[in-house]
């Protein structure tokens, strides 16, 4: 029998005891801030129905090309979550009796079958804190306060950059970008700082 070469699946990474202890300590600091501001934890499955994962972008986004797709024994289409937002939206939709505004935080692994680089793996940890069910700007202000408090607790000097989807939609409208192209345009804008300028052009 041939000897198997032991290695990680491409785009994955092990965390040894020292690194894992440090990661757990950082997560504890962050989640303590969330709880202090009244955000309870939420946990959702890493597996979701594929049609749900596709619905966020109407099946046409680049991220769907990076979604790990699989079938269960009943031949149902499933996918590994690529973010924590879609499962959160599903949870809200399935629980109409939740008192609004509803807050939650979640820390968990997400998966994307995209190009692998030193700073981009196929499985990584996301950390979300969200408020839904209110149009009040105070919810946005609270999230900014929480972000500032987290960086302060971690002793990291950070500059917070604020974006607003309404501003972006208005800009695309002024530039007369067809509405059916808005999602593509937003994805390109999102990548401006991440990829080579020539690729964007």
Keywords:
two-stranded antiparallel sheet; alpha+beta; 40% helix; 201 residues; BirA Bifunctional Protein, domain 2
| Annotated CATH topology of the largest domain | BirA Bifunctional Protein, domain 2
**CATH architecture descriptor name of the largest domain:** 2-Layer Sandwich
| Helicity, as a percent range | 40-55%
Task: Give the total of beta strands.
Answer: 5
> What profile does the largest beta sheet have?
3 strands, antiparallel
CATH class of the largest domain: Alpha Beta
Number of H/I helices: 8
- By secondary-structure content and strand pairing, the structural class works out as alpha+beta
End-to-end C-alpha gap: 52 Å
Q: Which outline best applies?
A: globular
Average pLDDT, to the nearest integer?
91
Superfamily at the CATH H level of the largest domain? Bira Bifunctional Protein, Domain 2
Point out poorly predicted stretches. Answer: none
Task: Write a structural description.
The chain is of the alpha+beta class. It folds into 2 domains: 17-157, Bira Bifunctional Protein, Domain 2 (BirA Bifunctional Protein, domain 2), CATH 3.30.930; 163-201, no CATH class. It contains 8 helices and 5 strands, in the order H-E-H-H-E-E-H-E-E-H-H-H-H. The strands form 2 sheets. The chain has a 3-stranded antiparallel sheet. Helix 1 (17-36) runs antiparallel to helix 5. The mean pLDDT is 91.
Summarize this, please?
The protein is 40% helix and 15% strand.
What is the element layout, followed by pairings?
Layout: H1 17-36, E1 47-49, H2 50-55, H3 62-65, E2 69-71, E3 77-80, H4 85-94, E4 102-111, E5 123-132, H5 137-153, H6 165-174, H7 182-191, H8 197-200
Antiparallel strand pairs: 1-3, 2-3, 4-5
Helix pairs in contact: 1-5
């Amino acid at each position: 029998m041939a000897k198997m070469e032991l290695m990680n699946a491409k785009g994955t990474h092990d965390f040894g005891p020292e690194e894992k202890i440090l990661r757990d300590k950082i997560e504890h600091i962050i989640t303590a801030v969330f709880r202090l501001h009244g955000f309870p934890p939420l946990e959702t499955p890493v597996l979701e129905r594929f049609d749900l994962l596709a619905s966020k972008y109407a099946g046409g986004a680049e991220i769907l090309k990076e979604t790990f797709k699989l079938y269960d024994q009943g031949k149902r289409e499933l996918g590994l979550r690529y973010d924590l937002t879609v499962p959160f939206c599903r949870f809200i939709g399935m629980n109409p009796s939740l008192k609004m505004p509803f807050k939650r935080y979640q820390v968990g692994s997400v998966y994307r079958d995209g190009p692998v680089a030193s700073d981009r793996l196929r499985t990584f940890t996301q950390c979300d804190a969200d408020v839904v069910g209110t149009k009040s700007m105070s919810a946005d202000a609270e999230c900014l306060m929480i972000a500032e408090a987290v960086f302060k607790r971690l002793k990291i000097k950070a500059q917070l950059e604020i974006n607003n989807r309404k501003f972006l939609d208005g800009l695309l409208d002024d530039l007369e970008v067809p509405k059916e192209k808005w999602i593509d345009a937003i994805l390109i804008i999102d990548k401006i700082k991440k990829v080579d300028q020539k690729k964007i052009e």
